[in-house]
Amino acid sequence: MTRRKFSRKYYPLFDYLSKQVEDQIILSFDQVEQIINNKLPKSAYTYQAWWGNTRSGTYVQSAAWLEAGFRVETIQFGHSVEFNRVSELLLTKKRHKSAVRIPPILRNKNSLQ
User: Fold this and answer.
1) 106 vs 3, 47, 103, CA distance in Å?
2) Which residue of 1, 6, 74, 106 is surrounded by the most CB atoms within 10 Å?
3) Where is the DUF7662 domain (predicted)?
4) What ranges do the domains of the chain cover?
5) Nearest CA among 32, 29, 21 for reference residue 78
6) Taking phi first (over 0 means left), then psi (-120 to 50 degrees means alpha), and beta for anything else, what does residue 12 get?
């Protein structure tokens, strides 16, 4: 997986998650703060979007878990966050070069009969 640029603040979370062998990691907010050696922003305690699995420029923190091969699955605000490992293909919005594109005529084959 090509590593993308993300905030230094969240690099320790990337490092921690990328070393895990389990497919499901549940961390308390306190554990996340210990890992990043910093406090999470107030928005992490109240907004679902902060934990979104998107690589937009304003959500630099999500690159830490996405680049480590994880997605946020469940959040218990102020308590814990569940990360689940996913395949690289699910982490990217772009179609993988080896993916086969099915022509529309074949997709709708049953509707032609």
Assistant:
1) 36, 43, 6
2) 6
3) 10-86
4) 8-91
5) 29
6) alpha
For residue range 44-102, what is the model confidence (pLDDT) as tens digits? 999 999 999 987 777 889 999 999 999 999 999 999 999 999 976 555 544 344 434 44
**Distance of alpha carbon 65 from alpha carbon 52, whole angstroms:** 10
Q: What SS3 class is residue 1?
A: coil
* Cα(51)–Cα(20) distance, integer angstroms: 19
Which candidate, 25, 10, 8, 4, places its Cα nearest to that of 72?
25
Three-state SS at 24: strand
Residues 6 or more apart whose Cβ sits within 8 Å of residue 2: none
| pTM of the entire predicted model | 0.73
